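INFO  loader      accepted 1 record
INFO  loader      residues=135
INFO  predictor   begin
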Amino acid sequence: MLTTDQEIKKLLIDAKTIAVVGASPKPWRDSGAIAEFLKNKGYKVYPVNPQYQEVLGMKCYPDLKSVPEKIDIVDIFRNPDEVEPVIDEAITVGANAVWMQLNVVNETAAGKAEKAGLAVVMDRCIAVEYRALIH
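INFO  predictor   done
INFO  writer      dumping tokens
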């Protein structure tokens, strides 16, 4: 589990592609706003949600397997009890890291990701951490 500012900062600096699982075009959902924030910060963002064709002008993919390039960070906006299948898919596609957003805590899924060699961040907002560590 990445917990120190230095570890998280390195992950954010090294990453180029971020898949946002649970991305939504609904303005009251944080997932779309954060996908747009990350895009504006220079990341290649892939919204992932089978319910939508597009999120905020970006093509939306039904699952991680459909994303056309290697994923550095899988940013997860799902309920804690829905995280494990996302982790399994992140492992299958060879993602470098999984990031569970604020209030998304699933120790079993985190352990599975770590055992498979993925970096894990849990119960933190990627935008808050970016603003605090990268500016």
